[in-house]
């Protein structure tokens, strides 16, 4: 009998060891599978983020090149044609003194048009933007827009220097331009206030007193999505706050 009990006990022990090893093996196998799945998901996410970043960089570069082409065409082609037309008017005034008064009005309009074309060309030029301090570039853009708008612009710039790379400065400026353009087109605002801070961390705020909108009901436009992706390229976050009847605020800040 003792031998039979010993065999039974040994059998039970072997079964327990086998079950334990099987359970341990199953656990390790499941853990390994989960780890591989997680690693694969992380790799796919990293590749997707890399693809999104590359795509955004390509879009930004393409848009910037297009803006440079427009800026150059405005400065060279349109500017020269306006100058040539003004020269012809001056010659016509010389040959027809009786039309001087009427033609002078036309000359003034052409001069204003020439200044506007030059101003827009400078606004689109990345080289001119990168050569300036960001605060100055923003002030110049507001001055240009103020000439043809009833909206009142306000700007506050911190005294601390903005330590930005050229590509960062350009991307921030383009986000500012796009946001301002959205305000002018859709907000129906009377006042737009810009705040540019360097300390304790970089922040650009653009706030209007326009009609606002419900963020839950209105999906982001392509322009807004592009602005958010531009912000991500330079390690920034773009946040939007808006309510119907209470205006809209866009804040670009360092992460």
TrEMBL record:
Gene3D superfamilies named among the record's database cross-references: 1.20.5.1930, Histidine kinase-like ATPase, C-terminal domain (3.30.565.10)
Domain Signal transduction histidine kinase subgroup 3 dimerisation and phosphoacceptor residues, every copy: 68-125
Residue intervals of the Histidine kinase/HSP90-like ATPase domain: 171-252
Protein name: Uncharacterized protein
GO terms for cellular component: membrane
Molecular functions per Gene Ontology: phosphorelay sensor kinase activity; protein dimerization activity
Presence of keyword DNA repair: no
Organism: Flavobacterium stagni
């Amino acid at each position: 009998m003792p031998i039979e009990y010993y065999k039974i006990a040994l059998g039970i022990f072997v079964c327990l060891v086998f079950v334990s090893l099987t359970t341990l093996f199953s656990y390790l196998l499941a853990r390994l599978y989960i780890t591989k799945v997680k690693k694969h998901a992380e790799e796919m996410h990293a590749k997707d983020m890399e693809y999104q970043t590359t795509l955004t960089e390509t879009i930004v570069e393409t848009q910037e090149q297009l803006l440079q082409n427009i800026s150059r065409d405005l400065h060279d082609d349109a500017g020269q044609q306006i100058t040539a037309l003004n020269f012809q008017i001056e010659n016509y005034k010389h040959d027809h003194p009786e039309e001087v008064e009427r033609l002078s009005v036309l000359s003034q309009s052409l001069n204003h048009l020439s200044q506007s074309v030059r101003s827009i060309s400078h606004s689109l030029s990345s080289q001119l933007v990168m050569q300036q301090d960001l605060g100055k570039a923003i002030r110049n853009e507001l001055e240009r827009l103020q000439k043809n708008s009833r909206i009142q612009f306000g700007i506050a710039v911190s005294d601390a220097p903005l330590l930005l790379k050229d590509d960062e400065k350009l991307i921030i400026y383009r986000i500012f331009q796009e946001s301002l353009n959205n305000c002018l087109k859709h907000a129906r605002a009377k006042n737009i206030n810009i705040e540019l801070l360097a300390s304790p961390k970089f922040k650009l705020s653009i706030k209007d007193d326009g009609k606002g909108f419900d963020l839950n009901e209105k999906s982001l436009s392509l322009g807004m999505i592009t602005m958010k992706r531009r912000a991500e390229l330079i390690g920034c976050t773009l946040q939007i706050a808006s309510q119907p009847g209470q205006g809209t605020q866009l804040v670009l800040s360092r992460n």
